[in-house]
Amino acid sequence: IAWGVAWSGLRQGGYVAIWIGRPSIRGRLTGLLLGIIRLGSAVGVVLGVAAYDRFGFIPAVGTVAIIGTLAIPLSVYIPWSHRPTESETGAGTDADALPATVQAAPVSSETGTTSARGWRDGIQIAFGRPTLRWLSVSSFFIYMVGVIVVSTTSIFVAAKSMQYADAQLIGVGIATVTGLLHGVRWLSNLVVGPIVGALSDGIGKSNTLLTLGLVMMATLLLAGTAPPTAAVLVFLVALLLDGSLRVVINATASTVATETDAPHRFIAAFATLTDIGSAFGPLIAFSALANARLAVVYGAGAGITLLCLFRYWQTDHALDHEDRSVPD
Predict the structure, then answer these.
(1) Residue 240, CA atoms < 13 Å, CB-side half-sphere
(2) Which of 134, 228, 236, 290 could share a disulfide with 160, CB 3.0–4.6 Å?
(3) Residues 142/277, Cβ–Cβ less than 8 Å
(4) What is the dihedral of CA 10, 313, 148, 243, to 10 degrees?
């Protein structure tokens, strides 16, 4: 529970850091942020396992905890309430793009009431305008399907390896293939994330989301029908697409949050929906697998996600059309 509270604060801080950047590069900033987080995950796993094998559980956990505390003095010196000037952020930057609520807010004595009202306001914002509503719903399904794919990786590999008598795939065992797939996914985010984020900055975030959703559905369907070795490579592409969708959906949320009256509250509701989707993913996956094939579960999840992304794309483009139709 304590870690969940701490992680929520870190996520809010990440969005604030992205808001400080120019709107035209928020996609690549989000990709870089998530890539660094995944790099930390990969390094942490390697160091943690090595420390556990050599020193045992308690020393390994203690070492990780000590390293984590190094972030405390860093956070103290970050100017969270600073509004950058145009000279600091570069020519052509809209210095007012940083939402006013990023600055230090007054502390209310009615903490419980304020918290409840803040959560209620965040939900109302997230499901108010059609664009925000479909963005929030899409985020739920993106994270849910992503966790379904991640949590069933070993099952997918095992199902494909059944065609081999020695239960091996591409020359190595099931556990090794599963570990390699997730390792490549984590490490590649540091490169793929900024690239996809920059792409979304260029062609538009709703266009990027719809394209990635369409490719994701086609990839998962292909993975279920491809030969074993090819299926593993296609599945790796699906994992990379999952990471790319997360980058763009978070960059989009960061961008639209600054257009709301309460950016932090919207982000709180948005992040909670992604967490709920992540929590439901394994439950739905393993429940559905009792009555359906893995390919059907993948296809159904990707199809629902694609429909939600299409609705967001429609509402976003309708909003752009209305903005263009309003005379100056």
Answers:
(1) 20
(2) 228
(3) yes
(4) -50
Query: What is the three-class DSSP state of 328?
Result: coil
* Distance between CA atoms of residues 223 and 106, nearest Å: 52
Residue identified by tokens 């994330």 is: 193
274-307: pLDDT as tens digits: 989 998 888 888 888 777 788 888 889 999 999 9
Nearest to 240 by CA among 151, 150, 310: 150
Read off the pTM. Answer: 0.78
Instruction: Tell me the β-bridge partners of 168.
Output: 173
Contact 243, 149 (CB under 8 A): no
* DSSP string computed for 143-204: HHHHHHHHHTHHHHHHHHHTTSTT-EETTEEHHHHHHHHHHHHHHHHHHHHHHHHHHHHHH-
Smallest Cα–Cα separation from 34: which of 151, 196, 180?
A: 196
For the chain, helix (H) and strand (E) counts, in that order, are 13, 2
